[in-house]
């Protein structure tokens, strides 16, 4: 291979070979359900069983979707669906990016099937390289990108050179996902625990981070972790309120999450037997979905919120692979919502390296995916947040719009069509558990603020709408009001989308 000797990539190739063996996390035993009560007057007839979840609508790209110019390898992608585009960051090596070593590239496409291109039309733009002097002085790799509160967070593996257990995890921030500034004082936020010495001396890295209910969840590899396999495979989990994991940190162990003073606390529990995994949170299931490579492709293993059980069996996205599945996720690391069936259908799409190239390293990123259909989603009021913005038939021959876990009942279907992301044909039972907070009758009053904002006035409360056309469809007369009058109304909700 021309150019400098590769460290992170070479170690990951070794790890990838070890990861070829199946590594599905087995579902935890579930307690038996109590027997149904009986009656002597009329025997109960059991309800028909719900359809089992099935893999549906398999798909894959026609060929390679992304590659770095003249790069010997391309793998470990992070993929975000944002603003109608697909953004991807991945590990590569460019001869013109200093210092010589692993670099992180960025490109965008209209869909996961590419082609991914940089703003200049090239195949990939280098956005982060080694720091020269820090723990990540020579190599940066394995990106995981998150957007929370307008800030992008990049979690990555860094290494200063070729030394045993030299990998550690760093974090950087950005206003746009392209211009990155190292955070945490340029120091690693997670280092090897050194619980156990193994032949695989990779260390700690391959991070994947998501954001759920105010917590940053970090999943990562540590070949020195106590609960890792004989070859160093395993995925450990930390969570923190602080994106740099400098305080308020908890580690997942045998008894669940427990506070720790140091991120190097012994790694006593692995959630899946794998290297280079990625994950996302599935709101409809209130569960984590972990993507990891197994014998026949990328297996998705599901864990409930407290990691005590598996809500649905694993599903495998077939096709050739070599390393590093990157799940297509929302900017905060959640599963995309299926517009036609947000409760029962979960899109599962990954980008992964498919071959070992001329440099004997993973490359040729390709897109593979399927839907998990008949998923038992929206089982609780909490999981109904996935329905936010959707409308469903109501029991009053009107339409119910779900807004922030609550229901707004709209009289006219034409109005609902403008307010909703989509109007579903069927009403998920969970909607019956959501509070009805407002009704929108035809001709309801409407007001306009001095700055042009529009709102329906329902029971003297403001419900913001996006356009006057919505009010016209509802036959609502718009009255201009003073700022004092506008401010005097309680702002109850936002119907804009």
UniProtKB/TrEMBL annotation:
Record bears the keyword Ribonucleoprotein: no
InterPro entries: Glyco_hydro_beta-prop_sf
Disordered as annotated region, ranges: 26-61
Compositional bias ranges of the Pro residues kind: 28-37
Name this polypeptide is given: Beta-xylosidase
Keyword Protease: no
Native source organism of the sequence: Saccharothrix espanaensis (strain ATCC 51144 / DSM 44229 / JCM 9112 / NBRC 15066 / NRRL 15764)
Record key words, sorted: Signal
Signal peptide segment: 1-25
